[in-house]
Design a protein that fits this description.
By secondary structure, the protein is α+β, with helices and mostly antiparallel strands. It has helices spanning 7-24, 26-45, 91-94, and strands spanning 3-5, 52-54, 59-65, 68-75, 78-86.
């Protein structure tokens, strides 16, 4: 099983990295992004780990990771990360 990142999620990750560097420094930002990539690996190994939830147009799974939530779907047993959103963001409105 593998994982892929949608364009919106890639932009989310870029924003998280940039803000992490500005607010916490390069070392912390790298460690935080590495923890997210580790979570992607975990989700790829266990795609049904997070509970499924009803979104506006489909069903998604949401896994907390640090201060963020990884929003993903399972396609043919692979994980597609749709978004990586801060825990305070309204994920339902952003999908």
């Amino acid at each position: 099983m593998a994982w892929q990142v949608a364009e919106a999620a890639a932009l989310d990750m870029q924003h998280i990295a940039e803000q992490g560097i500005l607010n916490f420094g390069l070392t912390h930002a790298r460690a935080y992004i590495a923890s997210m990539l580790d979570m992607f690996e975990t989700l790829a190994a266990h795609p049904e780990l997070a509970a499924e939830r009803e979104a506006s147009q489909s069903r998604v799974r949401i896994m907390p990771c640090g201060a963020h939530h990884v929003v993903y779907i399972v396609q043919d047993q692979d994980v597609l990360v749709l978004r990586v959103l801060h825990g305070l963001q309204n994920w339902f409105d952003l999908l």
